[in-house]
Amino acid sequence: MANVSVGLTALSANSASSDIRSTAGTAVTVDSGNTAVIAAPGGGYRMVVLAENNSTAALSALLTIQAGDKPPAEHSGRGTTALTALAQNELRAVTIDMSRHSQSDGTIEIAVTDSTSTAVLTDVRFTALKIGRDV
Description:
- This protein has one helix at residues 98-101; strands at 3-6, 8-11, 28-30, 35-38, 46-53, 61-65, 81-82, 91-96, 108-114, 124-131.
- It is mostly beta strands.
């Protein structure tokens, strides 16, 4: 298993954004058996993660947002969040609860596995959005 770093794209109020789903833009590919590690958004910001299953294989991606460390995650005792299967060519936006999933370094970890647990799923793309209170 490898960790794959995913940077943040900051959204600003009243300004146009580039294509945030662009392959040449901010999307980072994570294959089955690996973990997306998303940078900390900093205080006062919310985080939304776009997850898109672009695999050529007809497999569903299983995404698990890891429980955080206490501190800083006050609600880490609630455990991980397992998302329902992300079907081939499906895109989903997920709001991250920082009080539950933030690691001690402020990052968020999302483990990727496939529906058959054979580690053949490839090309699950993540885009992390940093959203201020004014957006």
